[in-house]
Amino acid sequence: MTEVSVHFDYTECQYAIRADLPQTYSKVWNQIASAGNWWSGYDRVAIADEVRNARSCGLCAKRKESLSPFSVEGSHDSKNHLSNEAIDAIHRITTDASRLTKKWLDESLGPKLSIEQYVELLGIVVAVISIDGFHRAMGLPLQSLPAPDAGEPDHYRPLGAVEGDAWVPRIPVQAAIGAEADLYDGNKQTGNVVTAMSLVPDAVRMLKSLSAAQYLKMADVVNPAKNGNRKISRAQMELLAGRVSALNDCFY
Fold first, then answer.
1. Does 19 have pLDDT greater than 90?
2. Among candidate residues 29, 221, 246, 237, the one with its CA nearest the CA of residue 130
3. Residue 19 and residue 209: Cα distance in Å, rounded?
4. Dihedrals φ, ψ of 110, to 5°?
């Protein structure tokens, strides 16, 4: 894996931005550009690009306005080589995540989109939405996407991932051992929002790095006395988080 040349430069921003934010974002951009477990770097950058395409997609706009997003058919506005199933997943997660259903997911999976590919795709979508959202909030232009690295996916699937009460296989806390021992920071319990991407462990690691910079370290989330040494209190942090979640139609 090579380091990306892209640097998140906030020197022209009118607000003071902590150094750990651009450092984390650069690290995430580097991860997106590299081959994953189920997608090549070329594919992963295309997924990131498709997140941005979704925001101006005519079909997505019509679905968002409809009573049911599954009642509107058509083609997404896309310029990428990804399969229709992958593009549809990216667009729906980006624009209308609160109305996704397990029936839709089950029907989307197949030869062109495996469950492992879906989870890795989900991790990239979440990261791009998060970083782009920060830029929009700060009034900054979006960072250009990185050039993809060479290499092919290794098809690594963790042995601890099992079927359960979620839409996708997950690694339970007690099964996070060996290569996955770091996923939950030794906590005896963690949120479903974290374990949801554990079928692709690196997706959890990417989420953790973003959480530590933009919110809190995973190990500190369960302790209401922790605020990550921020300038605002934990109560203020949770108030802001709750408001943002509501504006984003977050059903979790």
1. yes
2. 29
3. 14
4. 170, -155
